[in-house]
TrEMBL record:
This is Extensin family protein. InterPro entries: Extensin-like_C. It comes from the Bacteria. Residues 54-221 form the Extensin-like C-terminal domain.
């Protein structure tokens, strides 16, 4: 009887608390790509990966023009499902990403990269230079497929500011400069959103970029 009373009291407490939580802190609230990150951001992004209709609806609600691409394949064990080409400032332009990765990038750009650029440079970000999103291959030195094999990853190499300056991972990562501080904030902020974030401190293969993905292996290095 006592256990039942305690369970009912706990349920009542949760029912009272949830509507009063900030949206980003409510595990049951739909993800808002225009809102701040919270402790459940990664879990909500993974939920979007399992619900493409909700994923594309979230992108559209955030003002991102993302059209679903037909299912296809980049090669053996490299199925491309629920992908889109993300518009906006990229070089190369319109990278192919899974919908969930497109959603994660939208949060990352709005909640991490742009505020960090304003903080360190007094300037916004005009363009993100990347080394690719799709490569039908295994992880380097391994036998399992890379997240790049299904366009569930992006390798971010540099960022061009709206005032024309460029920040590159290869040149600026270890510098004691505003650019170096910006990149460290960009790396740490990515760890709040993506499943795996691998940078120059991981190994020499990542000396010139941040690898960002939404796989199921958690890493922040």
């Amino acid at each position: 009887m006592i256990v039942l009373v305690l369970l009912l009291a706990a349920a009542a407490g949760v029912a009272w608390l949830l509507p009063r939580l900030p949206e980003a802190w409510n595990p049951f609230a739909p993800i808002n790509l225009a809102g701040p990150t919270g402790p459940f951001t990664r879990q909500k992004l993974r939920a979007l990966a399992r619900d493409p209709e909700a994923c594309f609806a979230a992108l559209h609600a955030a003002g991102v023009s993302a059209t679903p691409m037909p299912a296809s394949s980049a090669g053996p064990d490299c199925a491309l499902n629920d992908t889109t080409r993300l518009p906006g400032g990229f070089d190369p332009a319109r990278p192919l990403l899974t919908c969930a990765m497109a959603a994660a990038w939208t949060i990352y750009d709005r909640q991490v990269l742009q505020p960090a650029a304003e903080r360190h440079f007094g300037s916004g970000i005009a363009r993100a230079m990347h080394l690719g999103t799709l490569a039908c291959r295994d992880v380097r030195g391994g036998t399992r497929r890379s997240q790049h094999a299904t366009a569930n990853a992006i390798d971010l190499a540099a960022l061009r500011l709206t005032d024309g300056r460029e920040v590159t991972v290869l040149r600026d990562w270890r510098r004691d400069t505003p650019a170096g501080a910006f990149l460290r904030d960009a790396h740490d902020g990515a760890c709040r959103i993506f499943a795996a974030v691998l940078g120059p401190d991981r190994d020499v293969a990542h000396a010139n970029h941040f690898h960002l993905d939404l796989g199921y292996r958690r890493a922040c290095r």
